[in-house]
Amino acid sequence: MRGAVKGAIVGGVFLAMAGGAGYGLYGLLESEVPGGGSAGTAERRSGPPSEEEVADTARKFLAAWAAGDTAAAAALTDNPSAARDAVADYRGAAHIVRAEITPGAATGATVPFTVRAEVAYGGAAKEFTYRSRLSVVRGVTSRDPLVDWQPSVLHPELRRGERLRGGEPAAPAVEAVDRHGKPLTPERYPSLRPLLERLRETYGATAGGRPGAELWIEPASAELPKRTLVTLAKGEPARIATVLDAKVQAAAEAAVAKFPESSVVAVKPSTGEILAVANHRADGFNAAMEGRRAPGSTMKIVTAAMLMDRGAASASAPAQCVKEAEWGGRTFHNLGNRELPGVNFATAFAQSCNTAFIKRIDTVDEDEALSREAHEVFGIGMDWKTGVVSQDGSVPEATGAAAAAAYIGQGEITMNPLNMASVTATAKSGVFRQPVLVPAGLDDRPLATASRTMKPAVARQLRDMMRLTATSGTGARAMASVGGDKGAKTGSAEVDGAGSPDSWFTGFSDDVAAAAMVEGGGHGADAAGPVVAAVLRAG
């Protein structure tokens, strides 16, 4: 009868069989794996595994895993070596002492299941429950039905090269607070989880506190933070004060949640303090601070400053916003091949006219001019010490067509939202102040300083051009809801092989500057613009 349940002892393991489907409840560390034949002796077929083969293979693999039979479980996968190590770690290095695995109904070749487990270490123990799934494929050479091995079979958060580990971590947990003393938890602010782990690894051992006991995911690279899954014993957390603002952080979290593969950073121009960092990405990467993507036309902030710094442009000077411009054997176009005859440089900036910038390249006699401006005035590439791992942007020297591409934020230039928020903050204040997440006084680390400040006349014109962009240019629609003294710059960056350009937007409102990037989001004002506007409103 459908839905009927019957219990049986098979090879020392209790199975709660449901509807005759061959799935059940398996107890970890039992004495024997259920028998009943081998998937390897099944009829050899071509094409995908049958419903019976999926059920039989999943049942045997889950039973072997539950019974702690590493060799048997590994042999039922298409990658025995990797599976053997991971299943062994589950019991050994992870210190998981008990688990019950309850499969659900298969959908095609995929079988979901629920794991109720207990991890124990040093006299502390805790139960936890999670859901995962496995898929059954046909072996390439054996033609047997096999579990398609992925680390996520053991736990859904495990990625390739990562391991489950349990015990006492190297550093105690941290209790991070914002600039007003409000707690910052990963439950309330999910984007902060990797940053909090970074703070823990960097400052936990020296900021006081005592480690407890945990189950965590050990990353594939030492450059990545570990991720805590279960806390068995809290120990004594170390308290770390950040310069984040909980209100702005909440707005940033909500804003990126509306756009997949999006990231945003907010910075205080008068101090360089980072007010918010948020990401909404499938891979969990902190692209907001560690990303390296072409910034598109948001880079025109730096290019405009360089041109005005060298007397090659001014806000009121005429600009050649023609349909196309050629340099170094490559032809560049404006969006929609449009042209704006008779406009000045400020309007060309506000309307994001590519050709107006490329037409100015022959007025600059230094190949390294843009790179120098980015480094000497905006602090790009100066080894920022923010308190956590971050990338500080790259504007390499370029010639020919590559130099023209760099003028409009393409080519070899790489930035992330942190870098562009800092560029905007520098434009707003006229002075580069290295962004920080935690005060430099916490560990007396040296902060990067630019070798020169922006000329006052250049800073004034640049701010006015950004204000024009926010009120009547390409950023006007996105910035309409933002008050205060506001400015902006839009950008869209073409990426090889991508169907849609990355969406970039940066802006300021009073003493808050923010920048956002949405991979594949299209034009700057369409996706990244609303993210930045939401953050600026909260500031």
Write the layout of secondary structure elements.
Layout: E1 5-10, E2 13-18, E3 26-27, H1 51-67, H2 70-75, H3 80-91, E4 96-103, E5 110-121, E6 124-138, E7 145-147, E8 163-167, E9 174-177, E10 183-184, H4 193-203, E11 213-218, E12 227-233, E13 238-241, H5 246-256, E14 262-267, E15 274-280, H6 287-290, H7 300-309, E16 324-327, E17 330-333, H8 345-350, H9 354-358, H10 369-376, H11 400-407, H12 417-429, H13 456-472, H14 476-479, E18 486-493, E19 502-509, E20 512-518, H15 528-538
Parallel strand pairs: 9-13
Antiparallel strand pairs: 1-2, 3-4, 4-5, 5-6, 6-7, 8-11, 9-10, 11-12, 14-15, 14-20, 16-17, 18-19, 19-20
Helix pairs in contact: 5-15, 7-10, 7-13
Key features of this structure:
20 strands; 5-stranded antiparallel beta sheet; alpha+beta; 15 helices; 539 residues; globular
Word description of this protein:
This protein has helices at 51-67, 70-75, 80-91, 193-203, 246-256, 287-290, 300-309, 345-350, 354-358, 369-376, 400-407, 417-429, 456-472, 476-479, 528-538; strands spanning 5-10, 13-18, 26-27, 96-103, 110-121, 124-138, 145-147, 163-167, 174-177, 183-184, 213-218, 227-233, 238-241, 262-267, 274-280, 324-327, 330-333, 486-493, 502-509, 512-518. With 539 residues, it is α+β, with helices and mostly antiparallel strands.
